[in-house]
Amino acid sequence: MKARTQFRAGQGFELNEEFAGKRLLGAATKAANKKLTPAQCKALDREETVALTAQIAECQSMLYAQHKKKVLLVLQGMDTSGKDGTVKAIFSNINPMGIRAVAFKGPTDIELAHDYLWRVHQHVPVKGEIAIFNRSHYEDVLVTRVQDMIDKAECQRRYAQIRDFERMLSETGTVILKVFLHISKDEQRGRLQERLDDPDRQWKFDPNDIAQRKKWDGYQRAYETAIRETDADHAPWYVVPSNSKTQRNLVVASLLLETLQGMKLEYPAPDPKLSSFKVE
Fold first, then answer.
1. CA 80 to CA 91: how far, in whole Å?
2. Hey, CA dihedral for 225, 154, 236, 57, is it positive or negative?
3. I need a labelling partner for 244 at 20 to 30 A (CA). Which of 24, 43, 180, 232 fits?
4. What's the pLDDT score for residue 88?
5. pLDDT per residue as tens digits for the range 204-231
6. Cβ–Cβ under 8 Å, residues 249 and 47
């Protein structure tokens, strides 16, 4: 089964904490590897992910050379779900030409003075580029809804606006894939504690993460609804079990590679006029 089929959310999607810990791709799922230890399976998954990123790099090179199509990868997830880690694992060995990562933080005063999609539209990919959104316009139907900054009616209007926005991007040449990195509440607790306990990683700890954690159930409902409301064939949502970092990276790499391969990318045809040209 293709990863894009296996991990597609669909309109009937419901969040399940148990799913966050599933291993549905990789070495542990193969009968031939039953005697391997979890550590050995993880090592094999890392090797497979590296192989996939090499293929992604080749596809990205063709995308950049062709300079016609665009790709938008949206990464969403609860705090500590691994958005930064996913970007590092998949794109660190890829030519930075034609790759752009954008991390959306809290909006600035100038951004708040515009409509909520204004700051997002500035960062969508240009021709030949893969843009990775670390958080995105979906924060404006997640944080705002959970914090009661908007009511249900406004949230519904925003779902419709997001659907229109993504359809416009698709119709003008952007291939979209949206990924929800799904971790369990207990896994998040462990990762937050690790940040606190490690002096070299404590800088990543944000006290606001604890405040948001108290609203876990609200965020789960908000994600569930947003995904159901905005999943579409031209802008699909994929739900990736992310308690295991190696599983997360393998699945996201598989989803991106399948998407790129489905675009039928190729290098531009050689110019016949240049075939006999000699540089003096």
1. 19
2. negative
3. 232
4. 95
5. 888 888 999 999 999 999 999 999 999 9
6. no
